[in-house]
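To: structure subgroup
Subject: Chain for Friday's discussion

All,

I'm putting the inputs and outputs inline so they're searchable in the archive.
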Amino acid sequence: MKRLPFSVRFCGVLLSSCLAAGAYAEPPKGDTDKQASPKKASTQASKPSAARLDPNAKTKLDHSGEPRKGKASFYADYFAGRKMADGTPMNPNSNVAASRTLPLGTKAEVTNLDNGKTEVVEIRDRGPYIDGRIVDVSPKVAKKLDMDEKGIAPVVVTPIEVPQPDGSVKFGAASSGDEKIANR
């Protein structure tokens, strides 16, 4: 029996490897947000997936202290203990949050626009990377804002203290007038 040339054998091996890898590849996933839970998976599968943002894209930090409206989501249990952008482990029982645009160390009020409930958080992580979302809060904060059942809520994020590039702190829209006067 005549042996096939090396290039033909190589192409055959390469093709069969690609086919085998495709057979074991996971199917594309729908909207797998941080707050998704197994009991909600069946309803999420029928919804169109949200636009994902590139976590490696450079985002300009907002040092203005002005409020912003958008949607909030919350960290899933999966993220408990994982390192956040500031290097500390994510504690689900703390008042921490993630923002793409607010500087790390910013203290801000997060107000649920559906019910008016407000909580103060400290920005210690980056995210969320879903279009339209401006903040991810810890499960403790989500429960206090009464958004833990729906998973997402319309919010306004109003900075209280915003660290500046020069090391100073700018008081934001949510800080009291006494603080602004005392630190002029």
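Points worth raising on Friday:
The chain is about 20% helix and 25% strand.
The longest helix spans residues 6-24.

D.
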